Amino acid sequence: MPAASDPAEIVMPATADRRPLIGIVGSGIAGLRAADAILKCEVDARIVVFGDEAHRTYNRPGLTKKRYPLSGALEKTIAEDVRVKGADNDAVTWRLGIRVETADLGDRILRLSTGETFEYDRLVIASGIRPRTSARGDGECELHTHRTLRGLGDARYIHHRLQAGEKVTIVGAGFVACELASLAKEYGCEVLVLEALRRGPFESVLGERVAMTLGRWLAQQGVTFLTGDSARKFLCEAKPSNPEPASDRSLFIEAIGSVPNVEWLHGNGLDLSDGVRVDEYMRVSPWENVFAAGDIARYPDPWAAGNLTRMEFWKNAIDTGDLAGRSVAASLGHGSVTSRIGYFPSMTTEVLGLRIQIAGDPKTSDSMEIVCGDLDRPDQGVLVAYLREGAMIGAAYLDKGARFNSAYIKLLRSLRER
Predict the structure, then answer these.
(1) Which of 105, 142, 268, 292 could make an S-S bridge to 297, C-beta 3.0–4.6 Å?
(2) Torsion of the alpha carbons at 294, 298, 302 and 303, rounded to the nearest 10
(3) What average pLDDT does the structure give for the chain?
(4) Over 90: is that where the pLDDT of 4 sits?
(5) What's the rounded Cα separation, in Å, for the pair 213 and 362?
(6) Residue 101 — left, alpha, or beta (φ > 0 → left; ψ -120 to 50 → alpha)?
(7) Whether 270 contacts 173, CB under 8 Å
(8) Which residues pair with 398 in a beta bridge?
């Protein structure tokens, strides 16, 4: 591409193709599903997907779920393992390794990290989230190499370090943190987990009693789990990256939540207080040609009338991506979208052999009941119902087997019918 004095003036090549041009910012599963939905609606349009990673869509949750053998091609091995069906779709144009720096929604223009501008007819915002950090990014302190885990490159580095069986410190006690702790123990590492703000894992979702049960489970499986002031003593901040990091620094992973990637949207009059606010059809007000999906979309909560919610689960990205794509198609005259978002929250993880299933909206409950089992023996199965004003709104099931699976399925049916 020829040089230009003002990179913002470099425009993507003109084309005689007058079909509508649809831009999708984000190459994750929400962006892919939006593109797929548009294609299934047989919209005669050009679709361009922008992604700041060099990889097509892959299964991000899979980055923490499997131990890999020693290999000189670890990143390739992981990439193959987390491939997503449909990501090889060449019916869309993939612009990978490119960031969208800013957007002018009024003029329908994106400004790219390459210096190009991209003019669209419809836009899907699926730029997702990034790890929250207390330090100044990946770097070094006297004792540690600080890292976060979001992409394939992060996974390759962290798995490589864990394969050495060295000591690892993990800050946080959410899903990523607990799965990393489990993975590190599988690799034979000495594991320290620090949770300075809460009493145990998943407390913000499952409440203090279940969180303390899970904290005890970590300790019983050989993880050093510290909370409160005991955890704060081991926290530290990274300095800017050292070009020659010391080989004896242990791994220090922060998994303390996420931040929606909305900065590129500033200045467009959007509600960006927690992701991008959309309506029940994934439309971004006041721009009738802009839609959002995935981790970044904050939509009317079908479980709590009058409230908004933003979900960071894989199935949510699939469902909202599909709905956003169908809404784009409808805006171009291809059918109508009659079904609003009706996402049923459910997720499953495994921590040190303990399978944890969560459904509904337990975080907004005001009480809980033990339906089956004993919180002191989670490996023998414990089923918990979460209530709000006496009505069940969520459930959690902890077990190393499937002792109460039929009872859990019965609870799920009750939740879906509410």
Answers:
(1) 292
(2) 100
(3) 90
(4) no
(5) 16
(6) alpha
(7) no
(8) 356, 382
